[in-house]
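User: quick one
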Amino acid sequence: MRLSQSFIPTMRQDPGEAEVISHRLMLRAGMIRKVATGIYSYLPLGLRVIRKIETIVREEMNRVGAQELLLPILSPAELWKETDRWDFYGKELVRLQDRHDRDFCLGPTHEEVITDLFRREVRSYRQLPLTLYQIQTKFRDEIRPRFGLMRSREFIMKDAYSFDRDEAGAQQNYQRMYDAYCRIFSRTGLQFRPVEADTGLIGGISSHEFMVLANTGEELIVFDPDSPYAANVERAEVVPPPAQEPSELKPLEKVSTPNAKSVEDLCALLNIEASRVVKTLFYQTAEDTITGVLIRGDHQANEIKIQRFLGLHDLTLASPELVAKITTAPVGFVGPVGLSHVRILADNAIAALTDFIVGGNEPDVHLLNVNATRDFAVHDWGDFRQAQAGDPSPRTGNPLQTARGIEVGHIFLLGTKYSEKMGATFLDAGGDSHPVIMGCYGIGIGRIAAAAIEQNHDEKGICWPMPIAPYQAQILPVTSSEAVRLASEQLYDELCQHNIEVLLDDRNERGGVKFNDADMIGTPYHIIIGDKGLARNTLEIKDRKTGEKVLLPPDQVTAWIKNAVTQELVRSKRKEKE
RNA sequence: CGGGGCGUAGCGCAGCCCGGUAGCGCGCCUGCUUUGGGAGCAGGAUGUCGGAGGUUCAAAUCCUCUCGCCCCGACCA
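Assistant: Done. Structure below.
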């Protein structure tokens, strides 16, 4: 491609709208342009990257026997009503009506559509197992789209669905996908980590997320540095602390704590550690009913765990009004003592605490030397808090560490959740009908591109890993003589003939402009052609990432580049075999 | 959904408080010179000041409404 004829609108200045590096660089390198909040056009350069990622994903999907199809973007409300997701999905589901006022939505995911296809077409166990996938644009009306392609409302996703006749087969399929995902992310040149994840409302038996490690990641994970254990904090189990030896308990005591509404206030006022405080969170669990959850002051409640324990799907904190009505105390001063009419759950950490501090159920009062059982009843003990750095690993007991990650893939073993609701069944060898066992497997294509930039850039711009680079080499004629022009043209032809994806910067620009654009775009190899070099019969090849330079006679450049590109592509493929 | 901020030339911004000819830098066009890390000189084009309504002799500027965008938060007591 000749830059003079290409549509690669690079920007000299940082656009005001972009926060994170990947978003800024995608805009500046002319890869994407915004159309509306969370909605982007992919310009030629961006599309090339997307296509390369898609190709890798396709190769690995096909390799594990998944077959590609394409489901529609628009799907009828009826299917979504069958699984109740028409209501559950909430505002994130983009709904619209056709001219006959029939309800439709833009697919945020395709379990319903694929399950419908399955139940119409598949009858017999002989047709199983079956894995289908597509690469399709999805729509989710995110609360707050941000960071460019990282969290957008319209995005490209690879979604695969597996159908098995039994649990063992489904597990096998799940494992095959897990392995395929590892290969995909290795091949795209990303540093990633599979982590145990919550199955969320999608439900099911097991789930893993694939996290690209990056400080700008929106997800928090905990990992055990000495074992493969890693989990999303939403999911990570917290090991209960060892039981305490019974000891002499101090008598309950009231203390005046004016305006100390938060744990922080209270600690400052009483000069104590947050770990001595127990906060009482109230969730509305039915109309006019609240459930209290006791969490140590320095811990964070994990609503997903509480939700799962209570068997609810939308847990919300009770309003201050409701809390005040039921407990007769203002929020900030509510505690479990004397609240026998409210169901109280307590996090396991509380069991190891004695003589702690809770709200006193009157304004500006807290209680000291409170002890569970002696002073109040706990209805249920459990793991209700979020894991944090330093907690013991559930596998080895070593202290866990935390890291930020970008979720680029998520796999679920669904079980029969959708097949049962939608009547997707098959007949076994004995003629009995069973709901098919499903799995679903997603990869954010655009998000991989963004994550790759987060991991591979410097102050000058992007440093693409070879397998997903939009172009493999870029020729920079940095002086304007006829000799340089001819040498550039000749090299360009040669590289094209050898199937190297090459950009020729034939614009009438000064060297500096070309250097800066090439660095920003991030082509892995830059070939610099100038009069100085030609006089010595050399061209300069620069490795974008390392900055290393090689001087070569013009007639050796093509072979060198061809070899280097091939090596890098082979290396990325080999990595996944290890 | 709540709070804050911003919409002025393709991009980045000033002007708005205190109403009176719409500006700056970059980019763009023409010409000449230049050409190994975002060139110099000369000349030039470009705006429904996000939109609607209002106040006023006069509105980018004041008032009301509206749309779009950005950031933070969305209940951890």
